[in-house]
Specification:
By secondary structure, this protein is mostly helical. Helix content is 66%, strand content 0%. The protein contains eight helices and no strands. Helix 2 runs parallel beside helix 4, helix 4 (48-61) runs parallel beside helix 6 (86-94) and helix 6 (86-94) packs antiparallel against helix 8. The longest helix is centred in the first third of the chain and has 14 residues, at 30-43. It is globular, with a radius of gyration of 15 Å.
Length: 125
């Protein structure tokens, strides 16, 4: 395993791990990205860095990183109890016009359905 990846265990806050992901992404393998997400899941209790990482991976290559983005979004949904990052995730991942496609997205994407219901518990799907 990469020595710099092992050093992430020293990060208890999240920013160094996020910076590592952004700066090293071109050279990280799929397995290494999973290890970064594993570390985020241990230390990012609010979902802040998971949300930022999901937005970043989606912006870089939405199809290539879909599995990682989906995993990170699911973790954010579970952690962001104060809804600080959920609304930004909706627009960043599903587009500014997601409200025009709520029924379709809800039927095809569990994370979208969960995000939408978390933000709009009384809203129709």
């Amino acid at each position: 395993m990469r020595k710099d990846l092992e050093q992430l265990s020293e990060d208890l806050e999240g920013l160094p791990t996020y910076e590592f992901l952004v700066n090293k992404l071109p050279e990280l393998t799929d397995e290494e990205i999973n290890k970064v997400i594993d570390h985020f899941s241990l230390i990012d209790h609010s979902g802040q860095y998971l949300a930022s990482g999901a937005r970043y991976l989606h912006a870089v290559d939405s199809e290539g990183f879909r599995r990682h983005v989906d995993r990170m979004v699911a973790l954010v949904i579970d952690r962001d109890r104060e809804h600080r990052y959920l609304a930004d995730l909706l627009t960043a991942i599903y587009g500014e016009d997601y409200t025009d496609h709520v029924a379709e997205l809800s039927a095809n994407d569990d994370n979208f359905r969960r995000l939408y219901k978390r933000l709009y518990p009384e809203g129709a799907l």
